[in-house]
Amino acid sequence: MAPSYTIEILDNIHVSAPAGSVPTTTLPLTYFDIPWFHSAPMQSLFFYEYPHPTSHFMQTTLPTLKQSLSLALQHFFPLAAKLMCPPPPLKPYILYTDGDSVPLTIAESTADVNHVKANYPRDIKLLHPFVSQLPPSTMSDGIRVLPIMAFKVTVFPNIGVCIGMAHNHVAADGCAFMHFVRSWSSLCESKGDSTFLDDVSQRPFHNRDAIKDPAGCNDMTMKGYWHWISSWRENLGPTKEMTVDKVRATFILTRAQIVKLKQWLTTQCKNNSNDVEQLHISTFVVTCSIMWICMIKSQDSEISANDYDDDKFYYFLFAVDCRSRTEFPLPVTYFGNCLAPGIIRAKKGELMGENGMVTAAKAIARKVKEMESEALKEAEKGPSNLEEMFRSGHYVGISGSPKLRIYDMDFGWGRPTKMEFIHIDDGGSLSLAECRDEPGGMEVSLALSKDQMDAFTSKFEESLKVF
Predict the structure, then answer these.
(1) Interatomic CA distance for residues 232 and 269, integer angstroms
(2) Which of 73, 185, 254, 356 could be joined to 351 by an S-S link, Cβ 3.0–4.6 Å?
(3) Is 134 in a helix, a strand, or coil?
(4) Over the range 240-261, which residues count as b (16 or more CB within 10 Å of their CB) and which as e?
(5) Hey, is 151 helix, strand or coil?
(6) Element (H, E) at 385
(7) CA 309 → CA 124, 169, 283, 306, 359, distances in Å?
(8) Where are the alpha helices (DSSP H) in 190-234?
(9) 82: closest CA among 10, 8, 148, 132?
(10) What is the pLDDT of residues 134-188, one digit of tens each?
């Protein structure tokens, strides 16, 4: 069903770093970057209160937004650059040349923004017109050229503003990209005061030579890239028209609920364990456990009808930041990708059983503990483990993290009123963030069919009543 509101494009502009501020630069891609060629663009929406007319935005706010974006791109120049994808046997790379720019679309909408960003279930198509789309790829001297970032800002007159962001994951993981957004928003809030970036610890670290490759992972990931580029097709991403109707909803776990869940799961894990291992039942473990089990049980009728094998494995995936977890520690400001996949698997019968949440919590807690010292090994095994997981068809992944502090992004209009990761609409993923209005709480968003969302909501509410 098409959205019942209008959206008018007011301007299409391009923003670049100040002329001459960044020299022509080539950045190689590492084995942390290359696997993301298979991924759709990362897309997010940041909603803000903005009690001013569109004319005020265009005359007063937009110039500051553009100036601050330009200043931010001076330091985060790879996001304005081009992703160069040559055919085999050549290697891909990021190329920045003076004048490279980022598209910025300005729009106005009559939509009821409070409905658009609500927590209750809404048609996913309601949000898609506000999402930025990366421009299509081009060809240059036999090399496919991919844009890296794009923005779309929509004004809801006298009510709010939405900033839609899209970027190619090959260029930056969530930690790196949110570092950019945080810097841009600080520059905008301060009307262009960039003195905080004089501190080297606040600036992005671009030295790719800091990534070591003791296991020869680059050679393995290059084979995957060459297969990908040789069988190229334009990646449409999740915000094109989808054949399956879905709704999106956000669920809140309060601090009090999390404390109770921690206490209950900690006790249950001890009572159901035959060994002496010490598992840390963290907020992350608690949140992921209840969400994973509710996702599986919301598919119960579908599973029961088609799959009677209790020994079939179900998978859970989360990303681990390796910046401080390798033999070559990197600064937290390292700009690029530095993630390893944490993959958990458990048998369907155990997860669907009476102690399913305990099984999930123990498995997730073990993997989190293991990744503290073996993240690089998981990165090395990542492609084959991910292939096994995707082949199973039974998996749930986590996008985002409370450590990204997405509700700190203040452009001068206050904290975001809501943030949505749109790329989870393709299915199989949940987005995770800190709760905006309650310290210690968690915010989880997901997109499911209407029937499955109803079942998930029921299972989620049932689960909370137990504690």
Answers:
(1) 47
(2) 356
(3) coil
(4) eeeeeebbbbbbebeeebbeeb
(5) strand
(6) helix 356-392
(7) 33, 36, 32, 9, 18
(8) 217-230
(9) 148
(10) 999 999 999 999 999 999 999 999 999 999 999 999 999 999 999 999 999 999 9
pLDDT at 59 over 80: yes
Q: Which DSSP string corresponds to 306-365?
A: H---TT-EEEEEEEEE-TTSSSS---TTB-S--EEEEEEEEEHHHHHSTTHHHHHHHHHH
What are the structure tokens assigned to 419, written together? 């943030």
Biggest CA–CA distance in the chain, Å, is 67
For tokens 């779309």, what's the residue? 152
Structure tokens, 227: 């297969």
Q: How far apart are CA 36 and CA 176, in angstroms?
A: 14
Q: Which residues are catalytic?
A: 169, 410
The whole-angstrom separation of Cα 212 and Cα 31 is 10
pLDDT band per the 50, 70, 90 thresholds, residue 128: very high
Alpha carbon distance 205, 76 (integer Å): 9
Distance CA 307, CA 296 (A): 13
